């Protein structure tokens, strides 16, 4: 019997702490950090999910009101009443000890958007992703998910409607589980799907990220790029026997860091393709409704995102479309885009 200390959305399974593997062997916790996060011992399905809100009904109502639902996910719904806003950060502050990291961050992520968060190192990009995912709580300000205030990791327990998944920079696979067990983890644990069906789905999702025949390998037998693709497969797999598929916002923390230029292109295109897939294939609401990418890489900025938020000294100091980034006259953005040592950003 498989058990876990806690459980959350598929893409956040890095914080899960398994006790036994699927064949009944006891396995060690993946990391002390995982255990620390999960110390309550509760089944937390909400770590990456949001308050209840029937987005399908809302979109149907938008349609009735003459607002177009996106034909392609590249086109963002801009509903005047704000029903297209999936995540909103309002005046978010966060400190670690004496260090003030976020000093009033506000932005919205709308349905259909592909947003990049960029900025110098240590400026709080990963911190804001973790706050959106519910893994960290802001000290001040709030995060709204589909218009409802996110209370926190434990308090949001049992909520459903929009899933928020975080794909960690390190891929964060369970070292003691096979690729199949890693990718299918959430389904083995939370769905009623037959094991052979899950295995089929795992193979399908691995193929979607360009990996074949690696199901029985251990993470230690994969290259860095392959691990990132396995993490991506784990983030996009879902129970396809369910009638209602909750839309999901995926948050990627430096998905191409450490990859060679070609491997980066593969991952960037995969990020785009899983975004478009649900919408194009069903002509209904896509599964990956929107995504946010934290990155330092120019290729990822240019290839994988449409809109950028520039975070500097704990605030959003510039936002615009990707094509506006290179021509901005904002001195901070200009210096960052050119990599110059001269300018307001000091190291
Ligand atoms: N759990 C934590 N405890 C203490 N300090 C932390 C913690 N998490 C982040 N920090 C600090 O907060 C600051 C922002 O970190 P964060 O990882 O969000 O930056 P970042 O913009 O993503 O950086 P990079 O681009 O280098 O990855 C850093 O100074 C970091 O050391």
Automatic annotation (TrEMBL):
Q: Name one GO molecular function term.
A: ATP binding
Every ABC transporter domain range: 87-338
Indicate whether Transport appears among the record's keywords. Answer: yes
InterPro entries hit by this protein = AAA+_ATPase, ABC_transporter-like_ATP-bd, ABC_transporter-like_CS, P-loop_NTPase
| Keywords, sorted A to Z | ATP-binding, Nucleotide-binding, Transport
Query: What is this protein identified as?
Result: ABC transporter domain-containing protein
